[in-house]
Design a protein that fits this description.
Layout: H1 2-8, H2 11-22, H3 29-55, H4 64-84, H5 90-98, H6 102-114, H7 119-143, H8 150-162, H9 164-175, H10 180-195, H11 197-211, H12 221-248, H13 253-263, H14 269-277, H15 282-307
Length: 310
């Protein structure tokens, strides 16, 4: 019950974002959301992931099951996407499924549900998800969509590599090799920036859902497939692999629980930004972001209940 209450408390910043939209706190909510999104992606969440891995207590899992869980679950789910996607929608549907709000919502959710001592592990799992999911999602966005030319297809991958959120986990692990005195100085600078990530991002989710509320009125069977692939297919595959790993002793309980929680969150805000930038199904991606954010209010509590079975 305490875990469920903690998870539901994450809705408070989201509700505040919705209220800010209703009250027109920002003259241009879209522009405000863009600024907040850029801050979170460029500074806050890289700082959070760096801090969790550099300064937190963390015993790096060595088992093959742990390191293969996220990539294999994503691969299996994306094969399902390829089979389920309507004609011309597979690329955008793959991006929506592969890239979840693992940093914006997943890390704070894991911390609330499983406790502060899981923060480093959650950042590590989120880091794997970001690197694999974002890279695969962007590549499939082009590979499974109508051809736009080799130059257009090569451009986004270089952009993905340059995103701070992609390489922050690696820097955090490397920073653990520094002397304690140096680490303390870095922590005093970086940690407060990382602490702002969760509240800012959750507020942004609420503001964005209000701004894009009109997309909810246009939900049809195609958008429903996007939502099901992200909130049902991926969590089910991840839970099956996690359960098999814990049953055989190949995977510890806590990493399994974190992986399932992170798989249950909504699609990432950046998925819409990427789809809009490259003009590949931006409307469908916006609808998928709005609907997965809305229905994750139902699926996240189910995931919290399910991890008790592991």
């Amino acid at each position: 019950m305490d875990a469920l209450v903690g998870a539901l408390s994450l809705l408070a910043p989201i509700l505040l974002g919705v209220i800010a939209g209703v009250l027109r706190v920002f003259s241009d909510p879209t522009a405000a959301g863009g600024v907040l999104n850029r801050y979170a992606l460029t500074f806050a969440f890289p700082a959070l992931m760096f801090s969790a891995l550099a300064f937190g207590e963390l015993a790096l899992p060595s088992g093959l099951w742990f390191w293969s869980l996220v990539p294999v679950a994503l691969a299996v789910a994306l094969l399902g996407v390829r089979l389920l996607a309507p004609r011309g929608q597979a690329g955008a549907m793959a991006l929506v499924t592969a890239f979840g709000n693992v940093a914006y919502i997943g890390i704070p959710l894991s911390q609330q549900v499983l406790g502060d001592d899981v923060l480093g592990l959650a950042a590590l799992v989120a880091g794997v998800h970001v690197i694999v999911g974002l890279s695969a999602g962007v590549w499939l966005l082009f590979a499974w969509s109508p051809r736009r030319g080799d130059a257009a297809q090569a451009a986004p991958m270089g952009r993905v590599v340059r995103l701070p959120i992609v390489w922050a986990p690696g820097l955090g692990l490397l920073a653990r090799l520094l002397p304690a005195g140096v680490l303390d100085g870095i922590e005093s600078i970086v940690a407060p920036i990382g602490a702002s990530a969760g509240p800012v991002a959750l507020f942004l989710v609420g503001l964005y859902v209000h701004t894009e509320r009109h997309t909810l009125r246009k939900v049809d069977g195609v958008t429903a497939r996007y939502t099901i692939s992200k909130l049902v297919l991926l969590p089910m595959v991840t839970f099956a692999m996690a359960a098999a790993g814990t049953a055989t002793g190949a995977l510890a309980q806590q990493p399994a629980q974190v992986a399932v929680l992170l798989s249950s969150v909504s699609t990432g805000i950046a998925s819409f930004a990427l789809a809009a930038e490259f003009e590949i199904q931006p409307q469908r991606t916006a609808q998928a972001f709005a609907t997965t954010t809305l229905f994750s209010i139902i699926t996240i509590p189910i995931a919290i209940w399910a991890i008790q079975l592991l």
